[in-house]
Amino acid sequence: MRQTNHTSSRQMHKYVWMLVGVFSLMAVSYPVAMFRVSQKEKFQGFHVKSLTVEGKLYADSVK
Fold first, then answer.
1. How far apart are alpha carbons 16 and 23 in whole angstroms?
2. For the whole model, what pTM was predicted?
3. CB-CB contact of 48 with 35 (8 Å)
4. CA pair distance 56, 49, nearest whole angstrom
5. φ, ψ at 57 (rounded to 5°)
6. Distance, C-alpha 55 to centroid of its chain
7. For residues 41 and 56, what is the distance between their CA atoms, to the nearest angstrom?
8. Cα separation of 51 and 37, whole Å?
9. What does the pLDDT look like over 31-54, one tens digit per residue?
10. Which residue in 11, 35, 57, 63 has its CB near the most CB atoms, within 10 A?
């Protein structure tokens, strides 16, 4: 006979809120990072920022 390990609803709510918090932090930090990158002089005037491994812009990047 198998024994199941039951987790209380309070414990499950704790895990759910932790995951919601982590997701919220990522959701907030993404637009902040996009804004910071868009303010860099290196990317001024570029609609699409395509970089090579060396950090140089591709010749066919959209301006």
1. 11
2. 0.53
3. no
4. 10
5. -75, 140
6. 21
7. 14
8. 13
9. 898 888 878 787 666 665 566 666
10. 57
- Residue found under tokens 């812009």: 57
Residue 28 corresponds to which tokens in the numbers above?
Answer: 């907030």
Q: Give the start-end residues of each E strand in 1-63.
A: none
Under the banding of pLDDT at 50, 70 and 90, the label for residue 13 is very high
For 14, the 3-state DSSP assignment is helix
Within a 10 A sphere around the Cβ of 1, how many other Cβ atoms? 2
Pairwise CA distance, residues 36 & 30, whole Å: 10
Residues 6+ apart with CB under 8 A from 14: none
Task: Please say whether the beta carbons of 42 and 55 come within 8 A.
Answer: no
CA proximity to 62, closest of 52, 51, 50, 54: 50
